[in-house]
Design brief:
Structural class: alpha+beta
Order of helices and strands: HEEHHHHHHHHHHHHHHHHEEEHHHEEHEH
Number of strands: 8
Number of helices: 22
Low-confidence stretches: 1-50
Largest sheet: 4 strands, antiparallel
Shape: globular
Oligomer: single chain
Radius of gyration: 28 Å
Distance between the termini: 87 Å
Strand order of the largest sheet: 4-3-7-8
């Protein structure tokens, strides 16, 4: 047994070695409900170095969270780079320049605090003479920064803050194309990611800035709200969720099915009932596991991730499900995520060293910077708690609304999905003809194809998640509205009449490529259903069968659309 003097000498020797690189803790790096006793239940053992890996710390969790957030940002900015010019650019369907001008008029004709509060975006301060270059610049900068974080697994508050501002700048001028809940969810997730990081350091394990437990709990609170919002809106919404029949329709009628949707749709009835019950359990019961200690919190994390993976496999729901996995990762501490890191890797070895030093009680007094950081962490908790009040009241309300923001910066939001499930799938199909007389008996109508949404009966459903085709998604909504409610559909028709390359880049097939322009365009309304496995249609290689409902909009030509375009201040298609 070592004597007390020997122990003292070893401690002094160790302190002399560490004096040049003191370890400072903000006191919030450990879960207050976690024990640091070294036993089999609370720790895992690294056989190679003989040091226990403690529970209740989140250094590795931070690395995983930052990489996950960066991955979603990278996908989102890639989608923006590839599609923004066609949707909100100079020649887009809804130019953001026109939107900014309307906001400017609304707030009194000046670009000031009122304009920024109404539409927070750096585009206010950029040259509007080349909006396409502005949009591309924002998207490319976002791709570069998020790619860097994804590769190195570390970031600072500056990088994460810039990413948040850049995506805010796109979403707030994206209008209809960026009007869905996952945009606000990414902005909230990205905002929380800012506070995971040190201010300046790019070290994956910055010793002077341990992950704050407050920050970890803001992510946990996010996944709780996402799931409860989704579950409650279903129970209060479509009766098929209460009758356990919604999954009889969902796979066939969801916005953009994938190949697996076909097979999931034809599952036995009892399996669909099981799916619906499982959905209710995971969305309405499992979130409360978050507050039941470490093990139950991890059970919640595992179930939520498996649930999202099942949704990813069964449909193309943009990056929504990938994004929902991110806050679930905060349910795991370093001990539970260690398997993701090589045993001899630098991150894991550094963490083991940090935990050994902390277990020895070698904690110098906090520096001024760490005290400021502690105040910042507490302030974050207070801010999220304050902004959560209307969100919680909305969850408790019988008039619950989903995917709504109560503050212009979208820091804390309400969420939900599929409160109602459509029972039939309808599609709008654009058709064009070269015939001078569209009413003639010999007229031949040729169909356009979108990049992903159902069209040709023998085309296999696409598989694109987490990527996202925004126009295809909006066409799903247009199909159960009228063209008067979705005037942008007529805008597309006019652009197709001009063989406009900007819009055609969003289409999968142009029947008039390398030919003269179509003289007429019409929209046809069809009801689509999956073919039955083993049927004659399926044997012919068809995934879908369809039945014509009627015209969605009548045949139109450029001359006939002239007044329509002018009344809406749209440039005439022939001028593009």
């Amino acid at each position: 047994m070592a004597t007390s003097s020997e122990s003292s000498e070893k401690s002094e020797s160790f302190l002399r070695k560490r004096r040049g690189d003191p370890l400072v803790s903000d006191g919030l790096s450990h879960d207050s409900c976690s024990e640091t006793v070294q036993d089999e239940d609370s720790t895992k053992y690294d056989k190679k170095v003989g040091v226990s890996l403690q529970t209740g710390t989140y250094w590795l969790t931070r690395i995983v969270l930052l990489r996950a957030i960066a991955f979603i940002y990278f996908v989102a900015f890639t989608v923006a780079y590839n599609q923004n010019k066609q949707l909100i650019g100079e020649k887009g369907l809804m130019p953001c320049k026109d939107y900014l001008r309307s906001v400017k008029r609304y707030v009194g004709g000046k670009i000031g605090i009122a304009a920024l509060a109404y539409t927070p975006s750096v585009l206010w301060f950029m040259d509007w003479n080349d909006m396409d270059a502005n949009l591309d610049g924002i998207a490319l900068a976002g791709m570069a920064l998020s790619g860097f974080v994804l590769i190195v697994g570390s970031a600072n508050m500056i990088i994460m803050g810039v990413l948040w501002i850049l995506y805010h700048s796109i979403v707030n001028v994206g209008q209809l194309w960026y009007s869905f809940g996952w945009e606000s969810q990414l902005l909230e997730t990205g905002f929380l990611g800012i506070f995971l990081c040190p201010l300046w350091s790019l070290s994956p394990l910055p010793r002077r800035c341990p992950p704050s437990l407050v920050s970890i709990w803001t992510f946990r609170w996010l996944i709780v709200r996402i799931m409860l919002g989704a579950g409650l809106i279903k129970i209060r919404g479509d009766r098929c969720w209460r009758e356990l029949t919604c999954m009889d329709y969902h796979y066939e009628t969801q916005p953009v099915p994938n190949p697996m949707s076909y097979y999931m749709h034809h599952s036995p009835w009892w399996f669909h009932r099981f799916e619906t019950l499982s959905n209710h359990f995971i969305e309405l019961v499992v979130p409360f596991f978050t507050f039941m200690g470490r093990r139950m919190c991890m059970v919640n994390g595992v179930l939520q991730i498996l649930f999202q993976v099942a949704l990813i496999i069964s449909g193309n729901l943009s990056f929504l499900n990938w994004l929902t996995i991110v806050p679930s990762l905060a349910c795991f501490d370093d001990a539970s995520l260690a398997f993701l890191f090589r045993r001899s890797g630098r991150s894991r070895q550094t963490l083991l060293q940090i935990q050994t030093e902390e277990a020895s009680g070698l904690k110098p007094p906090p520096s001024k910077g760490m005290l400021i950081r502690r105040v910042l962490n507490v302030s974050l908790g207070i801010l999220v708690a304050y902004l959560s009040v209307p969100v919680v009241l909305n969850l408790l309300s019988s008039r619950q609304v989903m995917n709504t923001s109560f503050d212009p910066l979208r820091i804390v939001n309400t969420y939900g999905a599929f409160g109602s499930v459509t029972k039939e799938r309808t599609e709008v199909v654009f058709q064009g003809t070269l015939s001078v007389n569209h009413t003639g008996e010999d007229v031949i109508w040729e169909e356009y194809e979108f990049l992903c949404k159902p069209g040709a009966l023998d085309r296999r459903p696409c598989l694109i998640s987490p990527y996202h085709y925004r126009l295809d998604w909006l066409m799903w909504f247009a199909a159960f509205q009228t063209y008067e409610q979705s005037e942008w559909v007529i805008h597309i028709a006019g652009r197709l009449l001009a063989n406009d390359s900007t819009i055609l880049s969003l289409m999968g097939h142009n029947p008039f490529r390398d030919r003269e322009k179509p003289r007429w365009i019409r929209g046809e309304h069809f009801r689509y259903k999956f073919t039955r496995p083993g049927s004659a249609s399926a044997a012919q290689g068809k995934w879908w069968v369809r039945k014509r409902i009627g015209p969605y909009f009548p045949p139109v030509n450029l001359d006939g659309l002239r007044n329509y375009f002018q009344s809406r201040n749209w440039p005439l298609p022939s001028t593009y």
